[in-house]
Queue: 4 jobs
Job 1
Amino acid sequence: MQTLTLEVRGLVYAYEDSGAPASSSSYTTVLMVHPPWFHGRIFCRMFPCAEAQGIRFIAIHSRGYCGSSPYTEDELDRRRSGPEEQETVIYADAVDFAMIMAQLIRQEGLPPHSEVEDVKTGGICIFSWSAGCTPIISLLANITSLDESLSALLERYLCTVILFDCPSMCYGIPEPTKTFHPFRDPTLTNEQKEARMYNFIVTYYDPFEDLASVTPTSIEQRKTLASVSPTSRPTVTEFSPQEAAEVSSPEVARHIGHDLLEWQVYAENVRRALLDTQGAWKNVKVVVAWADMSVWSVAWGAKCLQEILDSPADEEVQRRDVRVSCMKGANHFAMFDCPEQTVCFLVAHMH
């Protein structure tokens, strides 16, 4: 695994690269996107599996992380402003990601997507995790705003987007009453929010049997599995400060801020990305993946989104091909606690 950089729009983006697999010249490239607090090296335990699977992992470090250019104060102010200003920031992130893909295609000679007699090879699969799904949903929502040549290039390569363990807020889905989310608790200080949030997301919980079992009542009654077995103890809670620094940058997250975007910003992006696409990149499918032992918000988001997808749409509306899929026996940090299983899940869904 090596750390490299590229330049987009005058900005530097750092990334981790597993390298092209020696076993295949028509490999699929998996671009990985992290959420705030953690950075691209959170995916590092998946990298050793790349060669055996004949795939290439490239984990992009978002703005401010591991050598990538930080946000300007103006950009940060807009993130903390109203919906229109917030939309401009995540739209810029989405355009940057499109340009990153294009530069990697040209610079690294990535194999294009190909399908011969139902055998699919090559191309790009985006694997975005948690709140890291937001700029990728924004990308799908704003395809028609991209430069035509850029859009055409990416359409030849991008085959699948996996939204892995994306919380309900990033879909613009309201939370059930009586549910707890640290960053929406006005009684907590920022320090308390951080501590509560960390424990909230790393914990293993009673597994949901399926989406039908996800209800406000079952969420409220759900218990943790903190001391059941070694597989129920999150690896990240046992980190030394040095090990934690290898996969996270809390100081960057604090500088960017903990403020969540307005609900309507998330909801409008999801509508254009998944529910009313105007036929843009119609062959790009989306997998909404949720882990059954993860925080309640990812299961709630998957359930509500599935219900929306199951509802009838107007004839003129073009929905994206979206599949909702559960990863069993995993929590929010599947890529770290069970990397081999996560890679197998990814490979099974990437075409």
Job 2
Amino acid sequence: MGIKEFLKRRSLRARDDRRTKAAELTLRESLYPICLVTVLFFLWGFSYGLLDTLNKHFQNTLDITKSRSSGLQAAYFGAYPLASLGHANWILRHFGYRATFIWGLCLYGIGALVAWPCILARSFPGFCMAIFIIGNGLGSLETAANPYITVCGPPRYAEIRINISQAFNGIGTVVAPVLGSYVFFAFDDETALRNVQWVYLAIAIFVFILAFAFFLSVIPEITDADMAFQATETHANADDKPFWKQYRLFHAAFAQFCYTGAQIAIASYFINYVRDTQPLADDSMASRFLAGAQGAFAAGRFFGASLMRFFRPRWVFLVFLTFCIIFIAPSITQRGWTGMSMLYVTLFFESICFPTIVALGMRGLGRHTKRGSGWIVAGVMGGAVVPPLTGVAADAHQTALAMVVPLIFFVAAATYAVAVNFVPAYRDPADAFSTTEVGLTGHHAGVDEESGGDVAGSGVVADEKVAKKEIEA
């Protein structure tokens, strides 16, 4: 194989007006791309867990307040809508998933390199800028990875698939606080800051290697025409509506904003909560407690995914989010082991909420899938809004009392969980995908394999023309 042929086979541009085999990938066919993309879930779970640890670490080493330290979360999650509605979404719609993965990894690596001199100069604003670049990279990865896992394989198992992949995100959030307890809090301030530099240098090297691995890999590109085919096959007719009338999508994005903000706020101030309510706990011990709580979070994802094998995902989602509301309430008034235990249980039930909102919100979007996924991922911006509000409340009162802020946002997110279970316009598209046989038989009807995935058949061609007009618009 010559260099020209090698580069042609690894072209980063995919035509969205073609229906391919990717619309009906079987479990076996989807295994490799899902495993490869799942590595990204661990990566941003580690980055997010590291951020929660650094929140408290910089309060100590740079002598800043709780509300100011939340600038890390504001920079990190504030970058998400810029990526998911801006540059990453444009790349996803005009080039494809693999190009977006590589773009996100490169931005992540650049941000990790920028962090080095900022830490050396002990510049908190500079480090926030580095985190903003990293947030753009991770926002790009989430813009592509969440919908890719959801649509890569039989639609019936979409919620199970994304929850299992997101469980490795949870494992990453466990590893980071454990690392922080030994690398950041077990040394003097100067040594700890130096260790932070080396951690981010190692991250940069790893993500650049991973970006090259994605360039070499050949993974299925799921096109808008593929998604239009799935929507037609499952009789989820939301695909027929213009994008701006996809009200279920925007409600899901609102729920994601509220839920993610609450989740990030709890994790960001977990160490502060333990220090305020457990006088004998130091920062290193509190960081290990956070790792334990994130372990409960990861375990909850595996448990929730197993429940979805027997119960409809929308019911599991409603029950889990309801328990989040029930168990965070006592943590506001209780102290000591009782209050911390309530947060442990809350994190366990948080586990499946984010990925399930993604999967349910994308049901039936068809040719709008790539564009719509950007709106749901943009909901992660809640992580830039709710933690600062929680930090202000924690500075004015105590961290425990500040937990009333995420409680309010959990209640707001529950409006979507109620709607998707009891409002027919929400419930029916979700259930249509839960019973479809697409991807279970391995048939690729209507695909012209010789032309590289072109579609034969007038009905599907019509779907392609609609998808093409939408892209050009």
Job 3
Amino acid sequence: MKALNSDEIDVEGGKLEKDREKIIRSSKMVKIHNQALFSGLAYCISSCGMILVNKYILSGYDFNAGISLMLYQNFVSVVIVSLLSLFGVITTEPLTWRLIRVWFPVNIIFVGMLITSMLSLKYINVAMVTVLKNVTNVITAVGEMYLFSKQHDNRVWAALFLMIISAISGGITDLSFHAVGYAWQIVNCFLTASYSLTLRRVMDTAKQVTKSGNLNEFSMVLLNNTLSLPLGVLLIFTFKEVDYLSKTPLLRMPTFWFVITFSGFLGLAISFTSMWFLHQTGATTYSLVGSLNKIPLSIAGILLFHVPTSVENSASIFFGLVAGVFFARAKMQERY
């Protein structure tokens, strides 16, 4: 057998090292792609699931206490985040009076946003809710222009115009049109846009009064949900939901408690999975997937809840969903 000289050994060793590096690089790429795929699926499932489960609770069970549902879901979130923070799984900022004073105004908008979302979802089908929510983008864009002097290009305004047309045509052709539901949804659009615009200013101030000088997503979840509890209790008594809760047989059903508790877990899952997905991909992919996610959500909403629809209404819904995707792409191109 021919003996290998030192040069041949070095060459062979170099090839083995290169092959090893290729294998490591390819395995890392597969891992990254898998992480992005799993995080994206988790985000889509949790965000779709939350809306569908809430619709099922409010319409399927005919539960007429949307504020109480919001309060219970937020309570579940507070308990879970507090436990995770206690065991060191996540880090959260301590709730100080200075931080509460800064955050409380935006929390009032946050609570109003959640409650009006519940109230509109009870009366409007899921597909139309997703289309009408596009109006929030229009209000936010106008608010950015006047409050922050931010200019948008023609592609963004074209997409926003398409959203308005689809919302109007969808409302006109909606066979299950409900004036109360549409009124609550319009209020929700204004509150959601206000929350988005106000949050940008409040976050900078809030960071200055925290001990670490930072405010992560988990701290915001804990802060928002904790502050919403006393406000929610006050609203339950104000709108006399206590009387309804004392009489409804739903609270004596274990399956009902399971469903509303599950909805609380889903609400928190949206916060966790959105952070995970955003970290694995980026703002561009996150925004586009969020828009594309409305398409299966709308179809599922129509099929699961047997929503009466027409060709005209279906076309308006599809038109609105496409406008949402077009808006996401326009915003991406505007960034670069």
Job 4
Amino acid sequence: MNECEYNHESLIQLSPFFHQVGGHSSMFQYDEDTVCKVLDLPELHFYQSMPVSLKKFTPEFRGIITVQYWEDESGYIQLVARPEAACSDDEHSSNEDNVLVTTDQQSIDNNNLKKLVQLRYSKDGHIDYSNNLGNDVVNYEQGKITMAKINPWSLQLCKKQAEKLHQELIDAEYFAVSQKYILLENVTARFRHPCILDLKMGKRQYADIDSDKKRQSKIQKCELSTSSTLGVRLCGMQVYQIDSGRYICTDKYFGRTLSVEGFRAALVEFFDNGRTKRLNILPEIINRLEVLYETISSLAQYRFYSGSLLIVYDGLPQSDLIDVRMIDFAHSIYSSTTDDSSATHTHMGPDKGYLFGLERLKDVFKQIVNEGKTSTATITTSIDK
């Protein structure tokens, strides 16, 4: 990993990453095209030793930062990190040229939203968002479909992280507490209105080193969801609605309740912007999944347990931009793993569970495309008559 120099004269204020639709670890926005999440050593090691063939399907790893947490005199919570002054990673600087939607209007939108989502510690001992935050976030209910300008799942996670750090601050009796974070490419940065599908991949979610209790919990979640039948389940979703300017959002609890048919119906809704279904972008998504399938097939002894797959497209009707990325590698293992606790577990061949999930996902997408063609043909025939 290339070492980066930091500017010690200034600090950068982190803000909640608005487009986190799944996961259990909160993510924060570092700059326009970079996010950060709490450092997990196994995940860090995976990013640092990842095979080259997989890098085009994962967020770019951009280093490690130390983030400090404190509360100002008014109770507002500050999460700050030292910004990079210079970095020898040429790929990071070149990526800025590929960001398609860092328009003035988008910057204004983001800045206005950030003002609404300030976390504050009150004298009664509670941490919550400032009163300017809209009711669409305050009224979020776990497992329910929500309509919101900002994905409520991301805000819930950031609030929980702040509560955890606040308690550490009290226990340690310090002015500030620090944590290590990893910097990752913000894969949504190129999209004006990112529509995001977060899918938990594979028929097995537990890692070799998980405790019996955690292993049984993960097995049960798989058995009671589409993970057992399809090798994939919905972990979170947001879909931009043109007329309202808001996102339809679902969380992982909603995804766990879905049957096979319910999962398929949710994928259909993922391409519905309230006016039309964006089925025109599905062929390119399917192509990307096929390339990913070939890539994972070539990776012997790799396992991506509890990993997710992000599928992203732009809510702007005139945009055909899409992306497919693998994320969450805290439980991924590979032949070069140095952890003694997993050294006795040798997995031969590619990750068949992940490949099974990709196959079923492609099948569902192809079915949706074919049904869309049939529906269009029927309408055309009716008009001709």
